[in-house]
């Protein structure tokens, strides 16, 4: 039996994109609550309305996707995308015309 070790194709990144209404006080409260729940679940802010989370496997990513879906606000648009670590590593980031390094990947511990 071959064990599936951690590799660039098994490790996943979950990205959550959203555009939520903020016109009323209750809208702002719901939007802030949604962001806080993402942070509590281990997501990091990539841009103001894009959050991401590193997951060691697709199965683990599915757990976090279920949590996001449980916390969806009643209004607005939310998108969820999964990419492999390999795909994520091919992203190019720029601030103005200066290239920026990708966020550090959390270190994974493998026990046998």
From TrEMBL:
Gene Ontology molecular function: endonuclease activity
Keywords: Antiviral defense, Endonuclease, Hydrolase, Magnesium, Metal-binding, Nuclease
Superkingdom of this protein's organism: Bacteria
Cofactor(s) required for function per UniProt: Mg(2+)
Enzyme's top EC category: hydrolase
EC number of the protein: 3.1.-.-
Record family assignment: Belongs to the CRISPR-associated endoribonuclease Cas2 protein family.
Subunit structure: Homodimer, forms a heterotetramer with a Cas1 homodimer.
Protein name: CRISPR-associated endoribonuclease Cas2
Taxonomic lineage of the native organism: Bacteria, Pseudomonadati, Bacteroidota, Cytophagia, Cytophagales
């Amino acid at each position: 039996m071959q064990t599936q070790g951690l590799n660039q194709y098994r490790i996943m990144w979950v990205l959550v994109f959203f555009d939520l209404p903020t016109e009323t006080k209750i809208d702002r409260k719901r939007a802030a609550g949604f962001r806080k729940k993402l942070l509590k679940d281990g997501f990091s802010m990539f841009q103001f309305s894009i959050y991401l989370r590193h997951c060691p496997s697709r199965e683990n990513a599915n757990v976090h996707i279920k949590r996001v879906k449980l916390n969806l606000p009643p209004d607005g648009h939310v998108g969820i995308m999964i990419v492999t670590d390999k795909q994520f590593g091919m992203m190019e980031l720029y601030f103005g015309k200066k290239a920026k390094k990708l966020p550090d990947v959390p270190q994974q511990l493998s026990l046998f």
